[in-house]
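ESCALATION

Customer reports they have been waiting on this structure for their group meeting. Please prioritize. Original submission:
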Amino acid sequence: MTDEEATIRTASAPADAVWAAGRAVRAGAAGVDVLRSALDAARLFALRPPTPGVLAFSVPGGGRWTVVFTSPQGLARFARDRGQVVADWMSTTGADLIDQLPAGVGLLVDPGEEHCVALPALWLHTGAGSGDTADRLTKDSMI
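Update from on-call: job pushed to the front of the queue and completed.
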């Protein structure tokens, strides 16, 4: 088995935890700290930018976001649905990605999927992880 195949095989269990945590936070059954823990442990996949860093997109009136996926298949499906081909991609843990995100960039996990989660930059970059303020920030901005 290649390293790439091993990465893909180990992605599903933590990805399931991210999906479940996102649903629980949206339903008010869990705090965002649960989602952050699941996200930290998950392997995430994204398009590889031409230079070191992340691809960030500006949304008018909505800030800057980077798009990541909990599986390479999700990344490929997202690109294909937009008439693009994934020529170069990267993977890292959620913890490493969040630690390296530039200030002001939020995280959009699995866009276009039923379990999509949007984590705003304010929540990611202020260290908010639990409590009413963090819960409100994330619940109000989750897709």
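Sent to customer with the following note: The domain at 3-141 is CATH 3.40.1350.90 (Trna Endonuclease; Chain: A, domain 1).
Escalation resolved.
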